[in-house]
Amino acid sequence: MERESMAAEGTTWKRTTCYECDANCAFDVAVDGAGRAVDLSGPDCPRGAAQLERQYHPERLLQPLRRVGPRGSDRFEPISWDEALDTIAARLAEIRERHGAEQAAFFAGYTKEARPQLQRLAHAFGSPNYLTESGCCFSATLAAEKLTLGYRLKSASLLEAEQTRCLLVWSTNPPASVVPFEEHHAAQRREGRAMVVVDPRRTRTAEAADIHLQIRPGTDGALALAFHHVIFENGWADEAFLKRWALGWNSLRDYAREFPPERVARICGVDAGAIRRAAELYATSGPAQIALSPTATVQHSNGFQNHRAIILLAATTGNLDIPGGNRFFLDKVRPKPIDLFRETIDDLPPRLGEETYPIWTRYWPAGQSMLLPDAILTGEPQPIRGLFAIGINASMWPNSGRMLAALEALEFFACSDFFLTETAKRADIVLPAATNLEREALVAYPGCQFRGEVRYRHSVLEPRGEARPDAQVALDLGVRLGMAERFWHGDLAASWAEAAEGLAPEVRRQAYEDPDGAMVFADALDEEAFEGERLYEVRGFPTASGKVEFDSQELRAAGYDGLPVYREPAESPASTPELAREHPFVLTSGGRSKYFTHSQQQRFPSLAARDPVPRAQLHPWDAEPLEIADGAPVEVHTPRGAVTFTAEVTDAVKPGVVHCFHGWAGADVNRLTDHAHPDPISGFPPFKSGLCNVAPAGE
Ligand SMILES: Nc1nc2c(c(=O)[nH]1)N[C@H]1C(S)=C(S)[C@@H](COP(=O)(O)OP(=O)(O)OC[C@H]3O[C@@H](n4cnc5c(=O)[nH]c(N)nc54)[C@H](O)[C@@H]3O)O[C@H]1N2
Ligand SMILES: Nc1nc2c(c(=O)[nH]1)N[C@H]1C(S)=C(S)[C@@H](COP(=O)(O)OP(=O)(O)OC[C@H]3O[C@@H](n4cnc5c(=O)[nH]c(N)nc54)[C@H](O)[C@@H]3O)O[C@H]1N2
Ligand SMILES: [Mo]
């Protein structure tokens, strides 16, 4: 319908932000006279366009529930908010009383908005154990980069993209994972720009490349070392930069001698000549940029060091912080922290993970959520008995059946969600969450290189039923736990207003009043960097040594390898040949589909129609001898269990590799993945390199 005729019928368009992924795109929603959203318009994105299917989904949770049947059953009864909140507060307080506050954990899944208030609740309550999805996402690449470079590396930036002469895309496929998808520059073939893609699948991005290195999953470190080998061997390293700004680069050069392309070709399953050509392109056609995933390189038992080996290529070749190379990430939007982390953390007991992953916890202000099943089931490295979670799905964890069992073993478990998921069915109390359209928030988004965006998202709809914003619930619990003063007496807008105090007055005003929010530009020094000065020439590299740490002193001091030493994945044909006899395929998982964010939209009819079944991708050479037909059910099994997917027989996947999509309730690939061999530095699980076998289902 045309906007004018809609207006005549009492429909008004309101500006808001999408929440289907982290991009927080601006969207307009048409709200009719009865307060119902009837249309929306925004960027070309299938998930954004389907938002209203969550809003009005017949299965949406609309009331607080108390479980009356056994854990995992469907038997719940509605209760009032007062009763729900009183119960949660009382049970958490009881755990604190009997066992100590640290035995209650506070968790947020992919949803990020209410994290400041949730973390505040955890720390004000007295627990250090605020945990998030970042235990398996993003934080390990951040820690590896901060520890090695002192900065977070910015990649695939749009701003200077036209200056890049060689793009090395390592483990990411924007057409599935980053707006504007197919239009993303990192997925395009461009005149005058060479392109190399490292991926076990021939993705759309790989199809645009000059060279596709179709790697065996989990061997990325070896491949990166082969690049270093070729670069040093041919004198393509930027020695002037290295001599002035790098620590231990000659040790890495010496170590990389052990990784000639001919040897690495056998490790990674790629052609030695292609490795040489790719390394030459990257090293000699600068400015060159590495486009990285936020997390795919580190979801391996060896991921942290693999990631270091990759990012150090930018240092070896002098492509750090130059236009068209890899810039550093600059925080442009800085709301005032209201999470209490800095104020409290020194006085609180150790966070979950501090005992096990001291380096990771040094760089990440939360506990390591991947340890939650251990903490609940074994009491190691410290016991957890109670859990309050917003947006938790056991299928985020490797060996997710074990996580479900852990949730069942909790003394007390409450969560909020939009739907009564299998995970929520384990909770004692389930709370109905308000959607982004129903809740206000200060949405601060770092945006592109030198510019960030911030806007106050006013709610555009009344919450359906009794749904309530997560951040409001955190405040309500704070109040009920006797901390009204510290929780703004339950006033959600006041909590955001305090966060907004961190913004310059004009930015703040614009964020609240202008429907488009405010653009924030980098500060003066950062703009200087934009003018051509390099940030590290002004500020140095804020690492332990003030240099780029090829050989990390911090890692050494904590008992790890200082160099990015390559180790085989914990499960692989080379490291566990015995296991590989029964499980001859390498299993990787979680390549993104543009129709879903993890487990969230599979129940939306329009998106389920576009991508209807949980797929396991395998090569025809592997499928044919096993008589697995395209579209037929296929059972994938590992030592953890067996799950039935729909076979997608495609030569886009590397022979010998099986790729399963993640997030499907009825076919959860994490039933198969390994919890027992995380990366020793980050604690990240090997979602993307394990072993499996496949068979036609039913045999
Ligand atoms: N549509 C959609 N977009 C999303 C998300 C979503 O759920 N849906 N999730 C968001 C989140 S939380 C994240 S963390 C990001 C993830 O973002 P990305 O990790 O960039 O996700 P993908 O684009 O799928 O790219 C990962 C690629 O890694 C490849 N790969 C698998 N194993 C290996 C390996 O061992 N080595 C190498 N070199 N490559 C490998 C896969 O084949 C895949 O093509 O996406 C974000 N964007
Ligand atoms: N095998 C494998 N496993 C993976 C990955 C992989 O690549 N392979 N990727 C990992 C990565 S990078 C990530 S980020 C995680 C993501 O894993 P999760 O955090 O579990 O992802 P989601 O399915 O997006 O969200 C979990 C739940 O949160 C609910 N939810 C969403 N938004 C809100 C909200 O605003 N409020 C409330 N109360 N609930 C909400 C959803 O309905 C859903 O039930 O998965 C990880 N797991
Ligand atoms: Mo993620």
Automatic annotation (TrEMBL):
The lineage of its organism: Bacteria, Pseudomonadati, Pseudomonadota, Gammaproteobacteria, Thiohalorhabdales. Its cofactor is Mo-bis(molybdopterin guanine dinucleotide). InterPro entries: Asp_de-COase-like_dom_sf (IPR009010), MopB_CT_Acetylene-hydratase (IPR037949), MoPterin_dinucl-bd_dom (IPR006657), Mopterin_OxRdtase (IPR006656), Mopterin_OxRdtase_prok_CS (IPR006655), Prok_Mopterin_Oxidored (IPR050612). Residues 590-689 form the Molybdopterin dinucleotide-binding domain. Belongs to the prokaryotic molybdopterin-containing oxidoreductase family. Residues 60-477 form the Molybdopterin oxidoreductase domain. Keywords: Iron, Iron-sulfur, Metal-binding, Molybdenum, Oxidoreductase. It comes from the Bacteria. One of its GO terms (molecular function) is acetylene hydratase activity. This is Anaerobic selenocysteine-containing dehydrogenase. Pfam families: Molybdopterin, Molydop_binding. It comes from Thiohalorhabdus denitrificans.
